[in-house]
């Protein structure tokens, strides 16, 4: 009775604690990429839970059916040859499970690495996201704006992030929009995301890159295209220009709040020349650095 009461109290305590928890961000998707990943996570949890339940049921059955009997101590059971059906099931079922998971993983990886199909007919918003100790710099080349530690994006439009780092390897991650991808100092990695609805989200560096990496986070605000265009106009009217000296100052190790500038660092401190497009190898990098410098001078 004491054991049953203790187990019951444990279950009730866990249930009470979990009811006060917020939903996991990866299971609260706000974009097509994140929605696909959340689906795969729930699918994996469901299949693995079923397997665990079946295995425990078989274990309980075996423990009860073949528990110690009153046979004499010198009793020797008869020799039994292996059962081919049991061996086939024990080997075949894991092969089927692994094969299915492999198929789903490859298919999902192709989907989340490519431009969101729902917005295939729309021009992507290109944002250069670079990290330094311990902050994030977001450059909008077409809008000629740069922000620090916060990100504004329009909804219902593909976002194409160009990731790189001014320090150690970091990992760019917005859990409610998609999976993480590394930002490195010698190459650009491309990440395709999109937001389906307006709202506030959190992004962070998911990689350990020094003592300040735990606080290397940024805020993400998704808004309508109209509100995004209004924000761009307001920034151009009120923000100060980003100079090379100011940018070099921002690169120094330390934590900063949110900052906004007109102009970007892409002209005087361009990103690496090498590109890694993930599975989207057929796509050409439509933002050439020399052309980008010309665009900067036009502004």
From TrEMBL:
Its main location: membrane. It catalyses: 2 a quinol + O2 = 2 a quinone + 2 H2O. Residues 18-116 form the Cytochrome oxidase subunit II transmembrane region profile domain. Keywords: Cell membrane, Electron transport, Membrane, Oxidoreductase, Respiratory chain, Signal, Transmembrane, Transmembrane helix, Transport. It is found in: Cell membrane. Residues 264-299 are annotated as: Disordered. The chain crosses the membrane at residues 43-64, 85-103. Residues 273-299 have a biased composition (Basic and acidic residues). InterPro entries: CcO_II, CcO_II-like_C, Cupredoxin, CuRO_UO_II, Cyt_c_oxidase_su2_TM_dom, Cyt_c_oxidase_su2_TM_sf, Cyt_o_ubiquinol_oxidase_su2, QoxA. GO terms for biological process: ATP synthesis coupled electron transport. Its EC number is 1.10.3.-. Gene3D superfamilies: 1.10.287.90, Cupredoxins - blue copper proteins. One of its GO terms (molecular function) is oxidoreductase activity, acting on diphenols and related substances as donors, oxygen as acceptor. It comes from the Bacteria. One of its GO terms (cellular component) is plasma membrane. Residues 122-234 form the Cytochrome oxidase subunit II copper A binding domain. It is an enzyme of class 1 (oxidoreductase). It is a multi-pass membrane protein. Catalyzes quinol oxidation with the concomitant reduction of oxygen to water. Subunit II transfers the electrons from a quinol to the binuclear center of the catalytic subunit I. Belongs to the cytochrome c oxidase subunit 2 family. This is Quinol oxidase subunit 2.
